[in-house]
Amino acid sequence: MSSNARFQQILGVRFYVGDAQGAIEEVSRKGGLVVVPAAPALKNLAADHGYREALLGADFAIADSAFMVLLWNAINRNRIPKLSGLRYLRALLEEPDFCAPGHTFWVMPTAASAQRNLRWLRESGIRVGNENVYLAPLYDQVIHDEALLEQLEERRPRHIILGVGGGTQERLGFFLKKNLSYSPAIHCIGAAIAFLSGDQVHIPEWADHMGLGWLYRTLADPRRFFPRYWDARHLAPLLLKYRDRLPVTSS
User: Fold this and answer.
1) Phi, psi of 194, rounded to the nearest 5 degrees
2) How far apart are CA 7 and CA 48, in angstroms?
3) Nearest to 250 by CA among 58, 35, 52
4) Which of 88-102, 170-184, 220-234 holds the top average pLDDT?
5) By the 8 A CB rule, do 176 and 170 touch?
6) Which Pfam families match (predicted)?
7) Which of 16, 18, 9 is nearest to 45 (CA)?
């Protein structure tokens, strides 16, 4: 497969077409930003200018959204495979370079999440020191985090893993890509590690493979996730109208 054939424009965003290992090799070779847009956030591509800028500024996205992949494959001949953030993270955790002490820096959403996630990583044989963990503050729409930049410049990890919410992590990743003096691999994995550590509902590999992660999350916490995934239906008319083109921004 040629270099150009490994990517597909969807709504103007550059999506990687291939398996997790190939995506990891792509970003690890020279660094860059990998985003994992979910349908509930992707539907805001025309209205959320900061999110739009971040997706366009990323090196590539992976096709985590089962809904987006289903719609795309129904209306286009250039079919793409689904590549979930969870599968991507599982593959990352098998990489010797990724698992080496001091090579990773994790941005976590809360102290409780960090505790569970770090315990799971250490029990899995992946040593992450407390100095390589950062608790994300509540970010505004425009992200500027000098404290995080300072820590990253001091430690210069090869891999930065952003485990904060979708819609925020992409903007944070783009901020880091623009402002760091070197080029690490920046992975926006969202809740993927929480599915492994028990911080959120466990998603079996077979369910992830079948694109049913959204169902497990909804059943575990319907009040939180049902409205979010129901709102994702608005992605359908956007994708039908624009397909591979970038949507026109709303005023």
Assistant:
1) -65, -30
2) 24
3) 52
4) 170-184
5) no
6) Glyco_tran_WecG (PF03808)
7) 9
How big is the chain, counted in residues?
Answer: 251
Amino acid at 12: G
Question: 229-237 long-range contacts, Cβ below 8 Å, gap at least 24?
Answer: 229/39, 229/40, 231/40, 231/43, 232/38, 232/39, 232/40, 232/43, 232/65, 232/67, 234/43, 235/39, 235/42, 235/43, 235/65, 235/67, 235/68, 235/71, 236/71
Cβ-contact 160, 107 below 8 angstroms = yes
What CA–CA distance (Å, rounded) separates 172 from 164? 9
Contact by Cβ (8 Å): 89, 196:
yes
Q: Tokens at residue 109, please?
A: 């959403």
109-142 pLDDT per residue, tens:
999 999 999 999 999 888 898 899 999 998 988 8
User: CA-to-CA distance for 169 and 187, rounded, in angstroms?
Assistant: 9
Tell me the HSE value of 216 on the side-chain side, using a 13 A CA sphere: 15
Sheet-wide strand order for 32-35: 7-10, 13-16, 60-61, 32-35, 185-188, 159-162, 104-108, 133-135
